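Please go through the protein record below and explain what the tokens say about the fold. Record follows.
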Amino acid sequence: MNKTLKLFVSVIGVIASISLIIASTGLQAPGRMMMSSDVHRYVGGDAYNFIMESNLRAADIIVAELVSAIYLIGGLIMLLISLLGVAGSIQNKKSPVKPRESEAAL
């Protein structure tokens, strides 16, 4: 793979990873407070409705925080790999040193 293509792919990776990190900070979990007006389904008995609604709310909160953590970790790993690719494609590679004639004879 030539250096220009490797640099281009690495820069795209850096941009994608930064967007994942920003997306992870932008995701918001639903509020932890629950009012009686938040109960959307009536199954029978107010206490039972609150128990069901709190379980659903807890699942929403867990999923939102899990997705945020996955985006953050994935973005950080992608950023590290992309920065390594950028550093590898920018690095000046020196031509191999030719051995001296006296060393070649040994």
About this structure: The mean pLDDT is 79. The longest helix spans residues 46-90.
